[in-house]
Design brief:
- This protein has about 280 residues and is of the alpha/beta class.
- The chain has 2 domains: about 1-30; about 30-275, 3-Layer(aba) Sandwich (Rossmann fold), CATH 3.40.50.
- The protein is built from 13 helices and 7 strands.
- It has helices at about 5-30, 35-40, 50, 55, 60-65, 85-90, 110-125, 125-130, 160-165, 170-180, 200-205, 210-220, 260-265, and strands spanning about 75, 95-100, 135, 150-160, 180-190, 225-230, 270-275.
- A 7-stranded mixed sheet has the order 3-2-1-4-5-7-6.
- Helix 6 links the parallel strand 1 and strand 2.
- It starts with a helix and ends in a 5-residue tail after the last strand.
């Protein structure tokens, strides 16, 4: 083999080696989904309607991104009707613990009281699934401690930041989340995503929040942004709707008006951000 041919051969080998190294590195950075989360996709205790929303909420991929494992102590903030509780509770039941930081039963907001009652009934109706869920209260400014400080491995919140901005309690909730986590613990946030530069007034009105706002809230509380994902992105959602995010399914606030249009868009475009409490905290 002449020198030119040898050079080309060596160059090709080097290029292939670089590509292989890059692929291996990329694969190593992808957090594999725990098979137990996948088992929950078709679990019998989940309603058909809730399973159909997996298309937009991607629970298996989202929990893998947040590095949630079966033997961890996990806090779910404001679980609402319990969509994510259906996925988390059975897997954490044996080895880990799920803490549901819900509304106060003494809240002066009727919706909050009703939501909590419905959630507690959901847990009571299926004790074999939910008997190990630990209920706590998070409703600033009165209730700000959802778990003993420094004991949670993961704190998760799904589509709640806009509510905290509206009530003026966002800073308090982020601070409570920081307090709850162990050093090195992960704070996972999924939220409806507004276009950059959207005003606070418009965020509160529409339910869409800018990534910059969430990151600022988290960093001010002491968190470090470690990763962001497009798992829950929806490029069909331009975020400009007559009734904000509630125009889209599942709420469909306009009723039959342009219903097929909004069904075709699907659920909202969402950010998925992973923050960490510094290990040396």
């Amino acid at each position: 083999m002449n020198s030119t041919a040898q050079y080309q051969n060596n160059k090709a080998v080097i290029q292939i080696s670089i590509i292989v190294a890059l692929v291996v590195g990329l694969v190593a950075c992808i957090q594999p989904a725990n098979p137990q989360w996948s088992d929950m996709k078709q679990a019998e205790h989940r309603s058909h309607a809730n399973r159909m929303r997996d298309e937009y909420r991607h629970p298996v991929e989202t929990l893998a991104f947040f590095e949630v494992e079966p033997c961890q102590t996990v806090v779910e903030i404001w679980p609402g009707a319990g969509w994510y509780t259906e996925v988390l509770a059975p897997v954490l039941r044996t080895c880990g613990t799920l803490h549901a930081a819900h509304f106060s039963p003494a809240s002066d907001v009727p919706y909050f009281r009703k939501s909590l009652e419905n959630y507690k009934q959901k847990l009571a109706d299926q004790p074999r699934v939910y008997d190990a869920v630990v209920l706590s209260v998070l409703q600033p400014p009165t209730f700000t401690r959802m778990i003993s400080p420094g004991t949670a491995d993961r704190v998760l919140t799904f589509r709640n930041v806009h509510n905290w901005l509206k009530s003026g309690t966002a800073e308090a909730v982020f601070a409570s989340s920081f307090e709850a986590l162990k050093p090195g613990g992960i704070f996972g946030v999924v939220e409806h995503r507004a276009k950059p530069g959207t005003s606070l007034e418009r965020m509160i009105e529409s339910g869409y929040v800018t990534e910059a706002t969430v990151i600022e809230l988290a960093e001010n509380a002491g968190f470090q942004l470690v990763a962001r994902s497009e798992i829950n992105a929806n490029p069909l959602d331009d975020t400009n709707h007559p009734k904000g995010v509630w125009t889209l399914p599942p709420t469909l606030r306009l009723g039959e008006e342009d219903k097929m249009k909004y069904l075709a868009i699907g659920e909202s475009d969402r950010m998925t951000l992973k923050f960490q409490k510094p290990i040396n905290d």
